[in-house]
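Researcher: Please translate sequence to structure tokens.
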Amino acid sequence: LQREAVARFRRLHGPRHPDVAFALSNYGGTLGQLGRHAEAEPVLRESADIYGSAFGAAYADHPDVGYPLAH
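Model: Translation complete:
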């Protein structure tokens, strides 16, 4: 379902919208919780990249964005 949510947000808002980043963060976090770290990392990095583009590089380093990547 989360993968579908990402696809819907991309269709609605375009590929670089913060809502896409939010959906990617949720999806990546779930993958990480399931122990699927190799799959989670690129998803979470894309989320952080979109957040950084939307709100500035400092936001991409914010703990709320970086925490899922660290765990």
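Researcher: Any highlights?
Model: Residues 52 and 58 are 7 Å apart (CA to CA).
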